[in-house]
Design a protein that fits this description.
Elements lengths: L1 E6 L4 H13 L3 E3 L12 H14 L2 H10 L3 E5 L12 H12 L4 E3 L10 H6 L3 E2 L10
Parallel strand pairs: 1-2, 1-3, 3-4, 4-5
């Protein structure tokens, strides 16, 4: 199985760990092609690099291609900004792409209580795996 990982770049290290877990299970999980550059940076450095990549290196289209060529997406929605299961704008956009492409959408944690687009997330009918990656590759 090929799984596109969608996440906040603040969690680049965790995304690499998830990628390695799937690889050890005989599956392919894809981080953004820019993930390595974020490993070891602090949050401020990651934010600056993220904006640079989006503006100058077309990072969003790069990950679109990954999603298009995967069997499913897994949104690594960890807590961020005090919001459990946070899903940022970019991950929300990537969920929309997967939805339009009729790809299964998995969330690591429950749907966050975020005003304005919680109902849209619910409408995409993601499967919440509650931290259990094996639920994807059953």
């Amino acid at each position: 199985m090929k799984i596109a990982l969608c996440y906040s770049m603040q969690y680049a290290e965790k995304a690499k760990e998830v990628q390695d877990w799937f690889k050890n299970q005989g599956h392919e999980a894809f981080t953004t092609g820019f993930n390595k550059e974020f490993i070891g940076l602090n949050d401020e450095e990651k934010e600056s690099l993220k904006l640079e990549q989006k503006y100058e290196q077309d990072a969003m289209r790069e990950h679109w291609s990954t999603i298009k060529n995967s069997d499913a997406i897994l949104v690594l929605n960890y807590e961020k900004h005090g919001i459990p299961g946070y899903i940022g704008g970019n991950s929300f956009l990537e969920m929309g792409w997967a939805y339009i492409l009729k790809k299964p959408i998995y969330l690591l944690n429950p749907i966050p209580k975020i005003p304005y687009y919680e109902t849209e997330i619910i409408a995409m009918k993601p499967t919440v795996i509650h931290g259990d990656f094996s639920k994807i590759i059953k």
